[in-house]
Amino acid sequence: QERYNAPEREKHWQGIWEEQQTFLTSTDRSRPKYYVLEMFPYPSGRIHVGHVRNYTMGDVVARYKRARGFNVLHPFGWDAFGLPAENAAIQKGINPREWTYENIEAMRTQLKRIGLSLDWTREFATCDPEYYHQQQRIFLAFREKGLVYRKKSKVNWDPVDHTVLANEQVIDGRGWRSGALVEQKELAQWFFKITHYADDLLDGLDTLDKWPDKVRLMQRNWIGKSQGLLMRFNLSGEKVPADFGSVQVFTTRPDTIFGASFIGISPEHPLAKELAKTDANLADFIEDCRRIGTAQEDIDRAEKKGYDTGIVAAHPFRSTTKLPVYVANFILMDYGTGAIFGCPAHDQRDLDFARKYNLKVKAVVIPDDADPAEFKVGDEAYTGPGRLQNSSFLNGMSVEDAKEEVAQRLAKRNMGEKKTSFRLRDWGVSRQRYWGCPIPVIHCDKCGVVPVPDEDLPVRLPDDVSFDKPGNPLDHHPTWKHVKCPTCGGKATRETDTFDTFVDSSWYFARFTAPHAAEPVESAQADYWLPVDQYIGGVEHAILHLLYARFFTRAMKDCGYLGLAEPFNALFTQGMVLHETYFDEKQNWLAPDEVKIETENGARKAFRIDGGQEPISIGSIEKMSKSKKNTIDPDVFTQHYGADVARWFVLSDSPPERDVVWTEEGVQGAWRFTQRVWRLLNEAEPRLAAADAKVPATFSTPAQGLRRAAHKGLAAVAEEIEGLRFNRAIAAVYEFANALQAALQDKSAAGDESFGFALREASLFFVHMINPIMPHLAEEGFSLLGYNTLLANEPWPEVERSLLVDDTVTIAVQVNGKRRDEIVVPRNADRADLEAAALRLESVARAVDGRPIKKVIVVPERIVNVVA
Ligand code: ANZ
Ligand code: ZN
């Protein structure tokens, strides 16, 4: 029999699926629905193996659910706006739109070769005017609802190129093109009021029990709800400006007040700004702080620095204690009140700061089991629970009680009030970039901000843009931004900012339910399909994308577009695909296809394929990346081995939530398995024709054994796929393949009618078992078995529960009363089965040694005695 020619047969089946529109979403509403979605990709140009793993996971679920009688929605699209298209325009002079659509074209072709059961009629790209048209309408609806506002906010400003830079364009604090030191500049920008839903976004996490705990925790921390206290400190000193008699701080640890050793205010705090008017050194210091960069990590990483203002604050409970007031670079203006009291013993940032400026470090909370005389704070602040000490009326209290006590005493004196704070900030969506969705408003000197009237939407991106000048081409386009004010008809200009691309990906899953509707969503469709039943994607999106999508869903609900708050019922975050790295003596990376591996005495050595006797180095196993050249081109791979091998391999070796290492041996193993499946089916097939189609009244022992293996195998594959344990589903298939192979080799089964039936059933189950992961080979096998319909349209077979329980007994076999062997048979095996099974034994034949058999005594479930 011939080898299975995967590349050729895969093309064949893909052609048939396409021609028959097999995976078109059904409009039959009588069946239960199942919406499975993988995070849509950015059209960077080529599919990589990580995509293959991600989309195969979704595809396995989609195909399986389809077979289980669900109406499956499994769509695909492109997250197509963003900076790389502009970079291509700058570097290669290609128009961003053309670059993007060409990439989409190429990637779609590649994806189709993987054999995904997608409904391609629902495909869209976020840069399609049809899509961003609806996004502009959603924005204006949000604005009507008061969920959008404009305020001044900081951006990275390149003082040489006179342009705003994206965070990715700031490299080590310098502009990527000019090399100039980046500054912070305030610009009026658009914000989405995500904080309006802060509590709801937090509470909603409790309902998402099919999300990884780790992701929920990350979201919880990001939202960062803190119960704290606003405390007022009275200021004194010559320099205290008028109107600044006191400063208010936000603290979550009022219990530590007796450990306070300074007051810190943000460089942007009004008091700091006021003082800077008369203090040039302070003004310089503040200027310095601005250079840190806007990202949180930059702030956390920067060295703690402060400026002593010379002002002091009175301790609220110990009037003799005066706390120096510092302007400090680690205090953010947009959290709490932009001011803190510093307690170095119990806060790491404060401790770093105190060590630098020689401020007092006094421990006021000690662990329950610590000796107060011994307990010291070294380089690490103590942030755990414990008892209060050195704290006057708080001494001996627990942290919780002390917090309450301080709050109450201050409240009585009007010096403190409880306050909840969120770390979550409103979402700044303005980007000063070309390749994004235009923000549909017009600025008029007379009328202010005017929304673009609905009939004038979409605001389209112009095609004729130039990237010769740095900055936003929309801004220096000769005509695009100059328009008449829709309200007064006077001269006005369009908003030239475009949306953050996270906006585009915040509602695409809803759009898939009616991708070409004239409204953002069609209620009937959205109500039927949403929420997404299974969302699959990378953990790198655990915070922002998922939070923004959850915000959008709530906001769209409040605007009447959607009927639900949580968009993703279950979330699965898949691991990455890794590969070994190779490099030569000059530290140049080599790609896997430039290298051959030889094993000598168990040691692996790498050589160049194109000659070279000297071994090259094998580096560590790392995430596939272009820079290390350790990537595998799925296209080349599928043309050689076929998509099924790739699909099988990426799911086989480790649990899907973990990383998998792409290895040649692993690939070979997967390839050999496809050939083995093909061989087994070819061996089984000729023996099926003779088999009776009717269910036999009784089953022989081999038939019964095979049936058990088949039903158990099918049930196991189903259960593992339901739990997204694809590697274990694969293990169950391997196990069944072994059972099938053993049964095919069992000579005793020849001519047994009930075995023929069992073999037919087992072969059919086999193709069903592999179908979700290796759908092409499964179709091929199904057709080989004589069916002329598509397996993709077949329901998942029903298992017989009774065959799943291990109901076997071990029976001793004697010859002339002497124990010779034992057999394992179903408990309900009858006398004839037992007799036949015993007589088949090699050991029995040897003991009988050619003598005629007089009789066989059978005691069911106990013993078989052969009398010779
Ligand atoms: C005194 C104190 C003593 C604090 C102590 C902590 C430990 P979370 O829990 O994240 O809400 N803080 C307040 N506003 C700040 C700002 N704008 N920039 C930087 N830090 C700020 O953090 C609340 C704590 O962070 C507050 O409690 C405050 O320091 C600091 F042993 O007050 B704490
Ligand atoms: Zn006007």
TrEMBL record:
Domain Methionyl/Valyl/Leucyl/Isoleucyl-tRNA synthetase anticodon-binding positions: 708-830
Subcellular location, record wording: Cytoplasm
Listed GO CC annotations: cytosol
Main location: cytoplasm
Group of enzyme by EC: ligase
InterPro entries xrefs: aa-tRNA-synth_I_CS, aa-tRNA-synth_Ia, Leu-tRNA-ligase, Leu_tRNA-synth_edit, M/V/L/I-tRNA-synth_anticd-bd, Methionyl/Leucyl_tRNA_Synth, Rossmann-like_a/b/a_fold, tRNAsynth_Ia_anticodon-bd
Binding locations of ATP: K626
Entry EC no(s): 6.1.1.4
Biological process terms in GO annotation: leucyl-tRNA aminoacylation
Aminoacyl-tRNA synthetase class Ia domain: residues covered: 424-580, 622-662
Ranges spanned by the short sequence motif 'HIGH' region, renumbered to the chain: 41-51
Motif placement: 'KMSKS' region: 623-627
Boundaries of every Leucyl-tRNA synthetase editing domain copy: 220-410
Alphabetical list of HAMAP family matching this protein: Leu_tRNA_synth_B
Protein name (record): Leucine--tRNA ligase
Source species: Rhodomicrobium vannielii (strain ATCC 17100 / DSM 162 / LMG 4299 / NCIMB 10020 / ATH 3.1.1)
Gene: leuS
